[in-house]
Design brief:
Chain lengths: 201, 671
């Protein structure tokens, strides 16, 4: 299992060199990561469903803004209710802020009453760098055909103030709504905001 | 654990020391911020500059307007008296901080942001103006980020707007860190994933550790390395493009030592730096140089020496001719390359010199004058150069002689290179150094080409006329262009060193001539040591080099009588009732330099200004002097160039367009 992960990680690294980014409208790069329960999860197994990727670092005040206010949990629940898959990914390296083991991730999900489909661990930052994830939070939406349809911030108020959530445009809910209505995503790329992803040096 | 305790104590201590007693929020902030107004008594209807004086804790950094890959922009929420408005936050030039492959544009040390506050008109003096602001900003270490809020307040009182000198000096010190607006528009091109920014930046202006900080998001990959190249007056920054197709790119070009320029770039063509291009350009310049060198052979300063040498070469046999031709070529090429190398070294050292730079020194001209005079008298038959041991074995045969002739020809030829070689040599200066040296070598090769032909093609040698008595006559005739060259050099000397310098030069030449004449007489009588008088005269004549200097009028400003700008001097001149032309320039401003070369420093404009008794004041903003900056701003310009014309008796200047014409100035000077 470990070997398979390593092989895939290498393949991923080759297919999408470090720092490479995904392009909206193009096929999103496939990946396989270990989840908080020690199981392997591959992106391609969700083909046919809309997938939301959320980069997470529980120590980051911008992430806390959306978890402490319940905004992230609400967005997750709404996405899941529409049949979308929600994968929370942690690319923090061991020793850095926000790094978690599988058990720690389980208790984080439980404590925050979050409802992602799964919480994936990317301590080597291979998937994070392959997707060009720069901040926490940083959101990606992949449609049923495996095409990237959105990347950027969770909303349009780049602050750490929970009071700003009420008046903000939630890009994720807006994009999911448009996808469901069969319309193209009107805001397909925004500037993400937050802490930098705490990759390994 | 111990480390954490120590760092906690240190941090607390630092925070405690950094926060002044009167600060509102002592809290746990990692950046200590003071709100300071440039004046506490601003005038109604006027403006006052507010500063956020920020000091991050050690190990923490604040963010620039564009934070980079992560982070957020600082936001200010103002509470202002009715009618007052606050402008956007102005940021000083940031630093780069690359953490685990993500780029951050930050301030790791103390920094000061500015905001311009506009006050409504009609406020009574003495009215209290409470100013409040809540700053939301992000502060991070390499490990963690903390969004912070600072609530700052100050109270201003409506007054006369006068500034306290110490406060102003402090603000000016902070202002120096702000990017200055670059006078010329930049352009950018996105080409197959490469973003290329072309910034007009004079070749002579210094820049190091150049980096482009984009304000516009989505144009470039922040973490990708940037390569910088300078080609003449264009600075090109190349880096990885992002997917975005921006209509315009805004940013700050940092040029080292905390300096920077605010840049607006529009889409355009930006040529790739001379990497692949260099070969083609170098080859073209090389061909041009060879051709130019060939033409040089018929120049009055070179032809006489060469034709005689060519004839002497014709006399020698095949083996000897080939050797001499090669030695001559070596002499020519070596001197050309040496001159070129000195030129490149001087330019690299920051001096603004062009080809034939050595002719800008009157001492070099004097030496050339003496040399050419001696050659002319030699050709005229005044004396012979058969004396053994003489350094200048002009007519002597043998490889050593040929080499010396070549070196001499190349050196003497330089005054004639200018008009013919301008284009090729101009191209040489923007090539990489090896390309430039190749062009200089090409010039030498062209100059030596006829000799090589004569040396290596026996048929050509046979076609040359048979040596005979007629050669003596030809030699006498060829002294005429040599004398003309001497005359031309005397004129150049007069231009550079004034009448006195020219007189010294001619006296030295006459002394040398007399000495050589004496030598000639002794030679005719077959005396031993016949060269003594000539050599003595040469030494004395050369000694005059020591007393020759640049004429003072030539050494000062390029526009006769131009003075450094100051507002006091301007007021003085206006009080005298003189019209004043004030221009503001900087070494890094290309538009300024073009205007100066093409308009202000031309003879026509100079004469017109002198005739109209127009005083010329020059404000040099190269170092970004804030006092000058304020004066420029007062005329609704963000930076240089700025051209102001104060008519006779008029107190308000006319602001001339940024692209000047000679007619504009001549017309006003005459009026």
């Amino acid at each position: 299992m470990r070997l398979a992960f390593a092989t895939l990680a290498v393949a991923m690294a080759l297919a999408a060199p470090a720092g490479a980014e995904q392009t909206v409208g193009a096929q999103a790069g496939n990946f396989r990561l270990t989840d908080m329960n020690g199981r392997n999860v591959e992106l391609s197994q969700f083909r046919g469903k809309t997938v939301v990727l959320e980069w997470n670092n529980p120590g980051c005040p911008f992430v806390q803004k959306h978890y402490n206010s319940g905004n992230m949990q609400k967005t997750q629940a709404a996405a899941r209710a529409e049949g979308a898959v929600w994968l929370t990914i942690n690319s923090g390296a061991p020793g850095k802020q926000g790094y978690m083991t599988g058990t720690e991730a389980q208790s984080f999900v439980k404590k925050t009453k979050a409802t992602p489909t799964d919480y994936l661990l990317d301590p080597k930052g291979v998937v994070g760098k392959g997707y060009g994830a720069k901040t926490t939070p940083h959101i990606y939406i992949i449609d049923g055909s495996g095409k990237l349809v959105y990347q950027g911030g969770i909303d349009d108020k780049p602050t750490a103030d929970t009071a700003d959530i009420a008046g903000a445009r939630n890009h994720v809910l807006a994009a999911l709504g448009e996808l469901k209505a069969g319309k193209p995503v009107s805001v397909a790329e925004t500037r993400p905001y937050g802490c930098s992803v705490k990759y390994a040096d | 654990m111990l480390m954490r305790l120590v760092s906690f104590v240190l941090m607390t201590l630092a925070a405690w020391l950094a926060i002044p007693a009167a600060a509102q929020v002592p809290g746990q902030r990692h950046i200590a911020i003071d709100l300071v107004a440039e004046t506490d008594r601003p005038a109604a209807g006027g403006e006052v500059t507010l500063a956020f004086v920020s000091r991050p804790e050690a190990g923490w950094h604040g963010y620039w307007k564009n934070p980079g890959d992560a982070g957020v922009e600082t936001e200010a929420h103002w509470t202002l008296p009715a009618g007052a408005t606050a402008g956007p936050i102005q940021y000083p030039v940031p630093h780069r901080l690359l953490i685990a492959g993500l780029m951050n544009y930050v301030y790791e040390g103390p920094f000061t942001q500015f905001v311009t506050l506009k006050l409504p008109a009609g406020l009574a003096a003495g009215t209290r103006l409470p100013i409040g602001v809540k700053l939301d900003y992000l502060v991070c270490t390499e490990e963690i980020c903390v969004p912070e809020s600072a609530t700052l307040a100050t109270t201003l009182t409506v007054g006369d707007g006068a500034l306290m000198p110490e406060r102003r000096a402090e603000f000016d010190r902070w202002r120096r860190a702000l990017p200055k607006p670059l006078g010329s528009p930049a352009s950018f091109a996105i080409d197959g994933g490469t973003f290329r920014l072309g910034v007009p930046f004079p070749a002579a202006a210094a820049a190091k550790d150049v980096y482009f900080f984009p304000v516009t998001d989505g144009a470039i990959d922040y973490a990708a390395p940037q390569t910088v190249s300078r080609e003449g007056d264009l600075l090109v920054v190349e880096t990885k493009a992002k997917a975005g197709k921006p209509a315009a790119v805004e940013g700050v070009l940092a040029t080292g030592d905390g300096r920077g320029f605010a840049i607006q770039a529009t889409p355009g063509t930006v040529a790739a730096p001379a990497k692949a291009m260099a070969w083609g350009a170098a080859l073209a310049a090389f061909a041009g140089a060879v051709l130019g060198g060939l033409i040089l052979n018929v120049m009055p300063c070179v032809f006489p020496i060469l034709s005689l040498k060519a004839l002497s070469l014709a006399r020698s046999g095949g083996e000897g001719a080939r050797g001499e031709a090669l030695a001559y070529t070596a002499g020519v090429v070596l001197v050309c390359v040496a001159l070129g190398a000195i030129l490149l070294a001087l330019r690299a050292g920051g001096a603004t010199v062009g080809w034939a730079f050595q002719l800008q020194d009157p001492r070099v001209i004097l030496v050339l004058l003496l040399l050419v005079t001696a050659i002319a008298f030699n050709l005229a038959g005044l004396f012979e150069l058969s004396a053994p041991g003489a350094a200048n074995r002009l007519a002597a045969s043998g490889k050593g002689g040929a080499f010396a002739t070549g070196a001499l020809a190349a050196f003497v030829a330089t005054p004639c290179t200018g008009p013919f070689m301008g284009a090729a040599l101009g191209a040489a200066l923007v090539l990489p150094w090896w390309g430039a040296l190749a062009v200089f070598a090409g010039l030498g090769l062209g100059l030596a080409l006829p000799f090589l032909a004569i040396g290596f093609i026996p048929g050509l040698r046979r076609r040359l006329p048979k040596p005979g008595a007629w050669m003596e006559t030809l030699r006498r005739i060829l002294s005429v262009p040599m004398f003309l060259t001497a005359l031309a050099l005397a004129w150049v000397l007069g231009q550079e060193a004034g009448v006195n310098g020219m007189t010294i030069g001619i006296a030295a030449a006459a002394l040398l001539a007399a000495g050589l004449w004496w030598t000639g007489l002794r030679q005719a009588r077959g005396r031993a040591l016949a060269w003594l008088p000539g050599a003595a005269a040469a030494v004395v004549a050369l000694a005059s080099v020591a007393v020759i200097t640049h004429a003072p009028a030539q050494a000062t400003a390029t526009v006769a009588g131009a003075e450094p700008f100051s507002e006091t001097r301007l007021a003085q001149l206006q009080a005298e009732g003189r019209p004043v032309f004030a221009y503001f320039t900087a070494d890094w401003c290309l538009t300024c330099k073009v205007n100066e070369k093409a308009v202000i420093e031309t003879a026509a404009v100079r004469d017109a200004l002198a005739k109209g008794k127009v005083a010329v004041l020059v404000g040099d903003w190269t170092d970004g002097d804030p006092a000058l900056g304020r004066f420029i701003e007062a005329h609704n310009r963000a930076g240089v160039p700025l051209y102001l014309w104060y008519g006779r008796g008029g107190s308000q200047p006319e602001v001339l367009p940024q692209v000047l014409t000679q007619a504009m100035l001549i017309e006003r000077a005459g009026g």
